[in-house]
Amino acid sequence: MAILLYFDTNVLCRPFDDQTIKRIQRETEAFERILEKIRAKEAAFITSDILVFEIQRIIESQGINLSAFTSGLSRCNDGNVDRCKRDHKKFQAVTA
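^ that's the sequence the OP posted. Answer follows.
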């Protein structure tokens, strides 16, 4: 049976934080490794209504385009940290 994981908004938004800070970069890389386990079905991600609500509030309060947010996150989910960093810069430009 797969391990069930619940990520809070801090974890889900980490790929969009400033990747020039080493701690944030390491946390993003750890998140990427966990996502690899989910894709390999060694773990499963669960969600909640409150998590969806929190993400929606972040998106609305920051004026973030939802498609830009989900596109940026899904691209970061493939384990390619370098591309994630490049996409993060594009995401910042879209949301600025």
